[in-house]
Amino acid sequence: MDTISGVASERQGPNGVGKSGISCVWASPEGGQKIEIGKHIFCNRAVNMKNIVAVGFDMDYTLAQYKPETFESLAYNGTVKKLVVNLGYPNELLDWSFDWTYMVRGLVLDKRRGNILKMDRHKYVKVAYHGFRLLSKEEKVATYGNTLVRDAFDEPDYALIDTLFSLAEAYLFAQLVDFKDNNPEKISEQKDYFRMYRDVRAAVDLCHRDGTLKQMVANDPRMYINEDKSIVPMLQMLKTSGFAVFLVTNSLWDYTNVVMNFLCGPQKLDGSSPLSLDWLQHFDVVISGSAKPKFFHDENRTNIFAVDTDSGMLINTDNGSPMAQVGFPSLELPDQMPDTSYKVYQGGNVGHLHKLLNVESSSQVLYVGDHIYGDILRSKKVLGWRTMLVVPELEKEVKLLWLLRDTRKQLIMLRSERDHIEDQIHHLKWSLKGECLEGHDAKKAQSKLDSLEVQRERVRVTHQEAQKVFHEKFHKVWGQLMKTGYQNSRFAHQVVERFACLYTSQVGNLGLYSPAKYYRPSEDFMPHEFDVFSL
């Protein structure tokens, strides 16, 4: 048996799938078979599903996976337009285009210097660009490596690109940096790199406030959102297994209803026909307009309102239970559930949600989301919820790792060979320097030293070139998402390891495993243990 990041599975190759070529939901007759490696659920901290009472989901970028080639381009174009029309940037920006494949998550923007950085888990800068210009090793060290006190790389001077939605603004920032450097006369002197980033953020906020993006998505969801046939079977399996299922999203009810209809409603949506509420059968509680991350603070005193799903009207509640409206005697409370609350709400806080779900302990909740600060960090750090992080990029990365596993072994061997040669060189230099060798022995040692140094350089070049090719297989500019050189990347450490109990590529992967599964992590190893076990 092989253990891959805490998931035990037979060594099966990249496609552990059924005869149809599609991984089947666990509860189906074809389920319970080998799972495609890109759809595994990986475990950082143990989660026993038998102890879980409620399973919750975010909507945007969790249940609803947006297409970067259309949605991110839409966001980019809207932001550029706001920069020109509302913030006075040159009209030629309107001719710019967006390469949605260029940026990756886990990068850090240096707002004051106009740099884009990729760091390892220790926050050492390993790759740095000024705009789109690669910084030399000397420039990189001079800027980030020669300080008495190490930078924390936090706000307000830095911006963390940890969400998929922020990739477009990162790309636009790099474009503006290059534009300012090459055309200083076209950008006001008052607009330094820091101010330009602030303007980008202001333009993004304007796009959200005027509703342009969401209206475009609502008009044609299929153009901007990936269809995922695995979501409904997964939700049905959870409900049948006795879990309370909830949805918590910052999107308001009108947009939530459109998106969830596309994902879980009738197969074909006709814009002229009324939206169906059939998708609500898969959820016990839906909270829209949640204002995460504030939602996760129990002391947040925001009122919770019930939502009339037909009109969208908000109804006052007493901690989730509907209240009669003064002056509106015609408003009737639902006869079919006099002692229970509505199903759809807006606002509130996590305390309200716990009451609605009858949850006695926060550890009984598994929350599935994509946003480290809005979802995973707060729910894990503040509440103690169990968490599952959705990382869409993971599927491609894991499959490539499988295909390149022999190359990775060769890289490890080359690195070990470099270490061995360097040890021999150091020993010979010490012997020659300490005059331990004389005459013929000294000449022989010097000849061997010269040969080893030539060999070391050859192996070094071979190793570095092979490593570069290896990383470019994942991404031409930034390499592996989860690695920076031989270290875990800042994204892997900060976003995935620290706060996600489980992580996977798609939310529907939860339906490929038993709803009673005990997810167990692999054993932690320290460097000294690796050395012992490799003997």
From TrEMBL:
What are the positions of the active site? 58 (nucleophile), 60 (proton donor)
What cofactor does its activity depend on?
Answer: Mg(2+)
Record-listed GMP binding positions? 60
- Give the matching PANTHER family: 5'-NUCLEOTIDASE DOMAIN-CONTAINING (PTHR12103), CYTOSOLIC PURINE 5'-NUCLEOTIDASE (PTHR12103:SF15)
Residues the record lists as binding Mg(2+): 58, 370
- What positions belong to coiled-coil segments? 404-469
Q: Which InterPro entries match?
A: HAD-like_sf, HAD-SF_hydro_IG_5-nucl, HAD_sf, Pur_nucleotidase
Record protein name field = 5'-nucleotidase
Entry-linked CDD domains: HAD_cN-II (cd07522)
- Gene3D superfamilies associated with the record: HAD superfamily/HAD-like
The free-text cofactor remark is:
Binds 1 Mg(2+) ion per subunit.
Hey, which family's this protein in?
A: Belongs to the 5'(3')-deoxyribonucleotidase family.
What is the species of this protein?
Mikania micrantha
